[in-house]
């Protein structure tokens, strides 16, 4: 179905909401976007040079069909984009794609196309980034998260969704397995501390991104703006989870030979230092980072061998004390 360009073009041509948004232009080219590992994601170009993004949410992970994934995530992303786009500053350091239409029957989201390099690619070793290059990114991420976490959860549709249950199971089960594999020191204590964080989430009333990692941040150097994409895990939860996830991902990148270590460390430290840690919310921020580092270190895209993975897990318990 949505795995071929021809099918995508025919779908868009038959979707009045897309044609109205770009009327009277005709969709002429569909190109798969490289970030679509979980979903089918296409950039559709129209005859006048305008573009939109089509995102189809299959009932499984696109690159691993054996892993079932709730299709509810598509509607969650649409709702989140509606809510957050209404709050994004007209002239500011961050923005989100504007939603155009959600097709509930086919689990398809049409949205504005936004340009930028995923932060993971932006922080590769070449070209080397300067302090000036990355300082504005720290400011933009802080501004975005501060604004997002000041928003009340708009309605019950963000509370304990099937997608949220999936993510909790992934984090809790993944942490337990990976902590043993990578010989996390003091594993029982860390299990207890991370379990307390996970138990806190249902009590929170903050709107959270839910899966805030560098590939969700598009860096547009020309506009000096970041665009936040992939909102399908948006949920009610603890704001600390968003902050610690992005910091943990940057810690993995900063310890990899594949990335610009200085620039990545500057962003990571900048976010860690400006993280609004509060004793009142009960969230253990160090444990939040350790959980994410330990759970995510297994993935090959960090460019780490097994010895390096074990070392990174150990150092995460020391670096953020």
Structure characteristics:
single chain, alpha+beta, 5-stranded antiparallel beta sheet, 11 helices, 13 strands, 45% helix, 17% strand, globular
Report on the architecture of this protein.
- The protein is an alpha+beta fold.
- Helices cover 45% and strands 17% of the residues.
- The chain has helices at 5-13, 16-22, 72-85, 119-122, 131-149, 162-181, 187-200, 239-254, 261-274, 285-296, 306-319; strands spanning 27-32, 40-46, 51-56, 60-61, 64-68, 94-95, 99-103, 108-112, 117-118, 206-208, 217-220, 225-228, 235-237.
- The strands form 4 sheets. The protein has a 5-stranded antiparallel beta sheet, with helices on both faces. The protein has a 4-stranded mixed beta sheet with strand order 6-12-11-9.
- The chain is globular.
Q: How are the SSEs ordered, and which strands pair?
A:
Elements: H1 5-13, H2 16-22, E1 27-32, E2 40-46, E3 51-56, E4 60-61, E5 64-68, H3 72-85, E6 94-95, E7 99-103, E8 108-112, E9 117-118, H4 119-122, H5 131-149, H6 162-181, H7 187-200, E10 206-208, E11 217-220, E12 225-228, E13 235-237, H8 239-254, H9 261-274, H10 285-296, H11 306-319
Parallel strand pairs: 6-12
Antiparallel strand pairs: 1-2, 2-3, 3-8, 4-5, 7-8, 9-11, 10-13, 11-12
Helix pairs in contact: 5-9, 6-7, 6-10, 7-10, 8-9, 8-10, 10-11
